[in-house]
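Rotation project, supervised by the postdoc (A.L.). Task for the rotation student: set up a whole-complex structure prediction and record inputs and outputs verbatim in this book. Inputs entered:
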Amino acid sequence: QSALTQPASVSGSPGQSITISCTGTSSDVGGYNFVSWYQQHPGKAPKLMIYDVSNRPSGVSNRFSGSQSGNTASLSISGLQAEDEADYYCSSYASRSTFWVFGGGTKLTVL
Amino acid sequence: QLQLQESGPGLVKPSETLSLTCTVSGGSISSSSYYWGWIRQPPGKGLEWIGSIYYSGNTYYNPSLKSRVTISVDTSKNQFSLRLTFVTAADTAVYYCARARASDGDFFNWGQGTLVTVSS
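Outputs recorded:
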């Protein structure tokens, strides 16, 4: 059982927008501004897409955006493209004893 | 360009110790700006943070694995290592090494990962 809860799957058609949620508690997501999102294609290492809730690393498309409200963080992808089809994981800092936790992952299917 | 490469046995027997090394190139492991970490992913499942180490040797472990995990750093070789004792089939996973910013712990750089299977 993952510490952070994500939907198992989401889908959308090319050009559409989707949002993936990541629900935690006040001890992790809601307690710090340290939520990040990773994209993982099959057989590949994860890639950081969003850090510190809403910041994009250099080179990541501005179609990807992040936000947070209370204990829930969200990743939004606009203008869906076939290459966006992948697994997405959220992660959060979770105190000086637990440190870092991941969500269970969400499989994005581009129809 | 920073590169991380995991190395170690791909097969470990139950109850034995899993040992992996991550070799860092294109950057210094002694930088005060970063942590160095291990993350694993069982086949078909999600990511699990194992632990992280600072160049000074300060370590931070997942509480669920803390009793079995040791992470160490060798600044002379620009490497850091993972030891996981008393392994079982549940420890079968792809193991990734990664670099995180010290300011927020986000893993900006990852190795390609190495599959370790626990089986007799």
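Student's summary: Helices of chain A lie at 95-98.
Supervisor addendum: Chain A has a mean pLDDT of 95.
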